[in-house]
Amino acid sequence: MVIKPKIRGFICTTAHPVGCAKNVQEQIDYVASHKTDVDGPKNVLVIGCSNGYGLASRITSAFGFNANTLGVMFEKEPTERRTASAGWYNTVAFEKAAAEKGLYAESLNVDAFSNEAKQDAIAKIKQNMGKVDLVVYSLGAPRRKDPNTGDIYSSTLKPIGEEVTRKNLNTDTREVSDITLEPANDDEIFNTVKVMGGEDWEMWMDALAEADVLAEGVKTTAYTYIGKDLTWPIYGGATIGKAKEDLDRAAKAISAKLEGSLGGKGYVSVLKALVTQSSSAIPVMPLYISALYKVMKEEGTHEGCIEQIFGLFYKEIYADGALNLDSTGRIRMEDNELKDSVQSKVADIWAKVNSDNLDELTDFSGYQNEFYRLFGFGFDDVDYDADVNPIV
Ligand code: NAD
């Protein structure tokens, strides 16, 4: 099959196995060439392991610290006529590279919100790793089925309180125009917290503790984004921000349980905005990220998933000495994004940008390249006219 990108709105419905493998290899190479001799995790569970920040966490664990990894993901398998989703191909490439290094790496393609996923993961941990010393929670999901009641919750991306009108970029048509987002009602806020809040993270940690598969001194982290004025009305101060606030509550509850018996700890880690399948679905974010990339690339402070997670592990979680925590107890990795100088340059671009000057004022081409690369497209040394077998 000759595989070309098929874009539908903010998703690409095809993925290229060779390109996805390149994407994974580039991240492995980054870690291999930057790692230092630091004591890190040895047995890691990554929930949401196949794309974005979760994939980078798995790669850093395995290729930075020689850790065994168990991953949980929700991906589409390939068929004769249809490609797999990118996360499937990423995971195949990751597992192959880890096996070549002699590391245990297995992945469960299941709904992480279910009780079965937790029980399957526990069985695999017992069988292959004994106990885990790091649990990364990196899900980006639009809906969640409560495993105990069967109720299904869907998240919404809406402001809270009053309607918000903001510049927005249609990444298909390259058109910049205002969109107005109606405020969420209480139900929508509640549902979003159910999906993207901390409840499921706590359920995972409770299940793992109960099954006695958490090692002494275990660490766990979930990922969040906060942002500043430009994105606040549609992110930090919106439904998704409420869900993310709930992670802070969950981190405290998890830490309270882990500290007592195991000397463990739960952290929320705040990461920078960048292009992933999840962030491209959030209104306003593609325009913000395009402007941010322009400014941060000019300043030489641009980072992708692997640089952020490598920094999180090597300079914070596994560094010698105390962590740099904010007043809420979160680890902050997005200082460069939030610097006043960066934010004010992004705000200047924001005020002036329109459909005609998009390429001149922002790094939309960089945004688009990165978006294509998420699905394995746009790598120089991949022959995209070649016939490839989608089944890997
Ligand atoms: P992503 O879309 O790249 O990856 C999401 C992962 O979740 C995939 O591995 C997918 O398979 C998995 N997943 C989704 N639903 C699942 C389910 N039901 N069961 C099992 N696995 C499932 O997302 P991302 O952007 O890397 O986001 C990961 C976390 O990082 C999120 O909490 C997000 O809010 C946070 N974050 C993202 C950004 C950003 O700009 N992208 C910034 C800061 C924090």
From TrEMBL:
Q: In which pathway does it act?
A: Lipid metabolism; fatty acid biosynthesis
Which residues does the Swiss-Prot or TrEMBL record annotate as the active site? Y235 (proton donor)
Gene Ontology terms for molecular function? enoyl-[acyl-carrier-protein] reductase (NADH) activity; NAD binding; trans-2-enoyl-CoA reductase (NADH) activity
> Does this UniProt record's set of keywords contain rRNA-binding?
no
Q: Where does substrate bind?
A: Y225
Q: Name one Pfam family in it.
A: Eno-Rase_FAD_bd
Q: Which reaction does it catalyse?
A: a 2,3-saturated acyl-CoA + NAD(+) = a (2E)-enoyl-CoA + NADH + H(+); a 2,3-saturated acyl-[ACP] + NAD(+) = a (2E)-enoyl-[ACP] + NADH + H(+)
Q: What's the protein name?
A: Enoyl-[acyl-carrier-protein] reductase [NADH]
- The species this protein belongs to is Reinekea thalattae
Q: Which gene encodes it?
A: fabV
